[in-house]
Amino acid sequence: MLKYITIAFLLLPLPSPEPRAGNSNYNQRNDAPQLAASPLNSPNAQAPDTSTQTTSGKSPESDRQADIAKAAQATNDRIARATLVIAIFGALSFLATCGYIVAAFLQWGRAREQAKKAGEQVIKMQSTLEAIQNQGKTLRRQAIGTTSQARFTRDALVETRKMAEKNAEVVDIMKKQLAHTEAINNAQVNFAVIEGNIAERSARATEASVEVTRQNMIYAQRAYVNVVGGRMLGANEDGFKIVIKNSGHTPANNVQINYVVDVGNLPPGLPSDSNWEAAGVIAPDGTYDIGAHAKRVFTSEEQNLRQRVEEKFYVWCVGVISYNDIFQASLTDEPRITRFCVFGEWSNPLFRAWILGNDAN
Which of 34, 174, 175, 354 is most enclosed, with most CB atoms within 10 A? Predict the structure, then answer.
């Protein structure tokens, strides 16, 4: 700032000499050329050559030219002094700038070291701050978590208390329901037992009904072989002609007859021998004739007794008819049995059935 003030002071114009009175018109006419020839406008303008004036003598023109030359010389001197001052100030500024640069460089180095140390400290402080911040965040999260857990525990306790109350109510209701359910279950069990008994009885009744139906069907369709007729043989033959018939609706298989013919007041016992007469198969409504003869010769006394009616001495035929019907599973099953007991008198060729000994299984 001081440099620029000095330069402005040196460049201020000096006061010009007073013009002569007789040259006022000339100065008025030449105001413009003087401004054009001012050293401020043209620093390289040359001073006018005054050597010719010295030879030609003094004149108003020469005085004016001399004044202009003096003014230009003074301006150039001021410019030179200003330039010198500028140079000096420039040198001083340069030296000051160099010193400032050196001082600034040194200061920058120290500042750099301090900045480095400060940066390290800042880094350490930043790490410490981050650790503190992280610890603070952790503590904050822990605090938040503890608070949340406390709230959750409190809410859980409240809910647990409510649930306990509700559970107590539910337990009471469940006890009532259990008692009701138990009563219903007992009733259902009793009903189920009753139903089971009824079902069992029904099943047994159904089985019995089926069995009865089966037996009825068997009874209705099976073969029935029995004695249906015959007559006494002649006195010389001592026997009977017996007619057996299948009065059932299915065939009688493996029909066999065993009998005994004898005389007496009472019928003889059933035959004990194995002299069976095979009759084969008797179809439904089919018959088979048996010639039953005595297997011994009657004595004369027996002959006499049977001729006297009052003695009630009869000729007897006692026998067994064995056969199988189609409803028996196999031939190894017990055969069907029909027992017959008939008697006759010599005076009547027809025989009669005795009150006992006529039955079938």
Answer: 354
